[in-house]
Amino acid sequence: xxxxxxxxxxxxxxxxxxxxxxxxxxxxxxxxxxxxxxxxxxxxxxxxxxxxxxxxxxxxxxxxxxxxxxxxxxxxxxxxxxxxxxxxxxxxxxxxxxxxxxxxxxxxxxxxxxxxxxxxxxxxxxxxxxxxxxxxxxxxxxxxxxxxxxxxxxxxxxxxxxxxxxxxxxxxxxxxxxxxxxxxxxxxxxxxxxxxxxxxxxxxxxxxxxxxxxxxxxxxxxxxxxxxxxxxxxxxxxxxxxxxxxxxxxxxxxxxxxxxxxxxxxxxxxxxxxxxxxxxxxxxxxxxxxxxxxxxxxxxx
Length: 301
What we know:
This protein is mostly helical and about 300 residues long. The protein has 13 helices and no strands. About 80% of the residues lie in helices and about 0% in strands.
């Protein structure tokens, strides 16, 4: 029995120490996966992403207060206390929230149309050489053209309506979507395209399973830039096109300007800035998720 027991122990021992390199690799993988699988809403992650923004906001408010205390433009430039008190008072009324809803609704509709139109144009131009030679520089020219220059044309075409604002949003942001997709397609390794043809993928399947996934990082970057152009175009449009019965953020800012109410104007500008920061954080989160899934981000970060 003792001999049998010793044989059993000897037989089990190699199973414990077999392939020590694999065991070590497994341990490293478990450590790395433990970092990657940590919950994204863990307090440490939230604090690490929040404190730089809070520090920047604190520095700006502190500098603002110092300028106010020096007395420079004291009859025109209010202090942070008065502005935030005004903003808090506006948040107690439905008008501000209705204005935010109207503005964001226009932004979402205009941006969605820009993504649809820009993606179609980018997909066609990136794969059809004669079309790219004819319109490639035109897309870039449209992207660099100031959105404010389109409003006289849009108002003549659509009148002082929401359609005029959305029209300018599309013209201002769709070229960025198209250029983002074109750039992403240009940086696809030719080996992948040859592999797709060798596998017998059709043109539609090539776009769906190879070209679009491979160009996704550049496409998301183009979407982020397109949103910036769309947001600027929207704010310019709401300052120029005032529609009765639709108290947008731009309309509130224009009313504050007409009344020379600097406190309200700065409060509305803070709302515009806050909305822009929130959307930028969403795009940054999307970009981080894509990079992490493709192994382009450090798991320990």
